[in-house]
Amino acid sequence: MGKKLKRKLVRKKVLVVDDEPDIVEIIRDGLTEGGYAAFGATNGADAIIVNAKENPDLIILDLRMPEMDGIETLRQIRKKDTKVRVIVLTAFGNSDIATPLFLEFIICSAVSSS
Protein backbone atom coordinates (compact mmCIF):
# COMPACT_ATOMS: atom_id res chain seq x y z
CA MET A 1 0.00 0.00 0.00
CA GLY A 2 2.90 2.37 0.68
CA LYS A 3 4.10 2.23 -2.93
CA LYS A 4 0.63 2.98 -4.30
CA LEU A 5 0.29 6.00 -2.02
CA LYS A 6 3.67 7.37 -3.09
CA ARG A 7 2.75 6.96 -6.75
CA LYS A 8 -0.44 8.98 -6.28
CA LEU A 9 1.44 11.84 -4.60
CA VAL A 10 3.79 12.36 -7.55
CA ARG A 11 2.53 15.36 -9.47
CA LYS A 12 3.19 15.77 -13.17
CA LYS A 13 5.33 18.79 -14.00
CA VAL A 14 4.40 21.33 -16.66
CA LEU A 15 6.51 24.23 -17.92
CA VAL A 16 4.56 27.16 -19.41
CA VAL A 17 6.54 29.49 -21.70
CA ASP A 18 5.10 32.71 -23.08
CA ASP A 19 6.48 36.23 -23.38
CA GLU A 20 3.25 37.58 -21.87
CA PRO A 21 3.49 37.14 -18.07
CA ASP A 22 -0.31 37.26 -17.67
CA ILE A 23 -0.72 34.28 -20.01
CA VAL A 24 1.92 32.32 -18.09
CA GLU A 25 0.20 33.13 -14.80
CA ILE A 26 -3.30 32.18 -15.99
CA ILE A 27 -2.19 28.83 -17.44
CA ARG A 28 0.12 28.07 -14.51
CA ASP A 29 -2.63 28.85 -11.98
CA GLY A 30 -5.11 26.62 -13.80
CA LEU A 31 -2.64 23.76 -13.93
CA THR A 32 -1.78 24.16 -10.24
CA GLU A 33 -5.47 24.08 -9.35
CA GLY A 34 -5.73 20.90 -11.42
CA GLY A 35 -3.05 19.22 -9.32
CA TYR A 36 -0.01 19.76 -11.54
CA ALA A 37 3.35 21.17 -10.48
CA ALA A 38 3.51 24.15 -12.85
CA PHE A 39 6.48 26.38 -13.62
CA GLY A 40 6.68 29.46 -15.81
CA ALA A 41 9.18 31.26 -18.00
CA THR A 42 8.70 34.46 -20.00
CA ASN A 43 11.50 33.94 -22.50
CA GLY A 44 13.37 31.15 -24.25
CA ALA A 45 16.59 31.45 -22.26
CA ASP A 46 14.75 31.07 -18.95
CA ALA A 47 12.71 28.19 -20.36
CA ILE A 48 15.89 26.27 -21.17
CA ILE A 49 17.16 26.79 -17.61
CA VAL A 50 13.84 25.80 -15.98
CA ASN A 51 13.56 22.74 -18.22
CA ALA A 52 17.03 21.55 -17.19
CA LYS A 53 16.33 22.17 -13.50
CA GLU A 54 12.76 20.85 -13.20
CA ASN A 55 12.68 18.18 -15.94
CA PRO A 56 8.98 18.72 -16.79
CA ASP A 57 6.71 16.09 -18.29
CA LEU A 58 5.17 18.66 -20.64
CA ILE A 59 6.06 22.06 -22.05
CA ILE A 60 3.39 24.49 -23.22
CA LEU A 61 5.32 26.84 -25.50
CA ASP A 62 4.45 30.07 -27.27
CA LEU A 63 5.75 30.11 -30.83
CA ARG A 64 6.31 33.84 -31.26
CA MET A 65 8.51 35.45 -28.63
CA PRO A 66 11.13 38.21 -28.92
CA GLU A 67 14.85 37.43 -28.86
CA MET A 68 14.57 33.61 -28.88
CA ASP A 69 11.37 32.38 -30.50
CA GLY A 70 9.62 29.13 -29.61
CA ILE A 71 11.24 27.19 -32.44
CA GLU A 72 14.77 28.07 -31.35
CA THR A 73 13.86 27.51 -27.70
CA LEU A 74 12.63 24.04 -28.54
CA ARG A 75 15.69 23.28 -30.68
CA GLN A 76 17.90 24.13 -27.70
CA ILE A 77 15.78 22.04 -25.31
CA ARG A 78 15.76 19.08 -27.73
CA LYS A 79 19.58 19.01 -27.70
CA LYS A 80 19.44 17.70 -24.11
CA ASP A 81 15.86 16.48 -23.72
CA THR A 82 14.39 14.52 -26.63
CA LYS A 83 11.53 12.98 -24.67
CA VAL A 84 9.63 15.91 -23.17
CA ARG A 85 6.21 16.39 -24.74
CA VAL A 86 5.44 19.81 -26.18
CA ILE A 87 2.29 21.73 -26.98
CA VAL A 88 2.83 24.89 -29.02
CA LEU A 89 0.41 27.77 -28.59
CA THR A 90 0.24 30.27 -31.40
CA ALA A 91 -2.11 32.68 -33.07
CA PHE A 92 -0.20 32.04 -36.30
CA GLY A 93 -0.96 28.53 -37.57
CA ASN A 94 1.77 26.51 -39.21
CA SER A 95 1.62 22.74 -38.86
CA ASP A 96 4.81 22.36 -40.95
CA ILE A 97 6.94 22.72 -37.80
CA ALA A 98 5.34 19.74 -36.04
CA THR A 99 7.32 16.84 -37.50
CA PRO A 100 10.86 18.27 -37.45
CA LEU A 101 10.53 19.40 -33.83
CA PHE A 102 8.70 16.33 -32.51
CA LEU A 103 5.63 18.20 -31.34
CA GLU A 104 2.56 16.48 -29.99
CA PHE A 105 0.10 19.34 -30.59
CA ILE A 106 -0.06 22.77 -32.13
CA ILE A 107 -2.91 24.89 -30.85
CA CYS A 108 -3.70 27.86 -33.06
CA SER A 109 -5.96 30.51 -31.67
CA ALA A 110 -7.80 33.11 -33.64
CA VAL A 111 -7.42 36.50 -31.99
CA SER A 112 -9.92 39.17 -32.90
CA SER A 113 -8.76 42.78 -32.80
CA SER A 114 -12.32 44.12 -32.55
Please describe the structure with a list of short key phrases separated by commas or semicolons.
single chain, 114 residues, alpha/beta, Rossmann fold, five-stranded parallel beta sheet, 5 strands, disordered C terminus
Shape category: globular
Our measurement of the CA-to-CA distance between the termini, rounded to an integer number of angstroms, reads 56 Å
Tally of alpha and pi helices: 5
Strand tally is 5
Query: Low-confidence segments, ≥5 residues, pLDDT <50?
Result: 105-114
SSE order, as H and E?
A: HEHEHEHEHE
The level-1 CATH class: Alpha Beta
CATH topology annotation: Rossmann fold
Strand order, largest beta sheet: 2-1-3-4-5
Mean pLDDT: 81
Q: Into which percentage range does the β-strand content fall?
A: 15-25%
Q: Percent range for helical residues?
A: 40-55%
Integer tally of domains: 1
CATH architecture: 3-Layer(aba) Sandwich
Query: Structural class, from secondary structure content?
Result: alpha/beta
Considering the protein shown, what is the CATH homologous superfamily?
Response regulator
| Main sheet specs | 5 strands, parallel
Radius of gyration: 15 Å
Molecular structure report:
This protein has a single domain (2-92), classed as Rossmann fold (3-Layer(aba) Sandwich). β4 (85-90), α5 (98-101) and β5 form a beta-alpha-beta unit. It is globular and about 35 Å long. The chain has helices at residues 2-9, 21-33, 44-54, 70-80, 98-101; strands spanning 13-17, 37-41, 58-62, 85-90, 105-108. The protein has a five-stranded parallel beta sheet, sandwiched between helices. The chain has 114 residues and is α/β, with parallel strands linked by helices. 41% of the residues lie in helices and 22% in strands. Residues 105-114 have low confidence and may be disordered. α3 packs parallel to α4 (70-80).
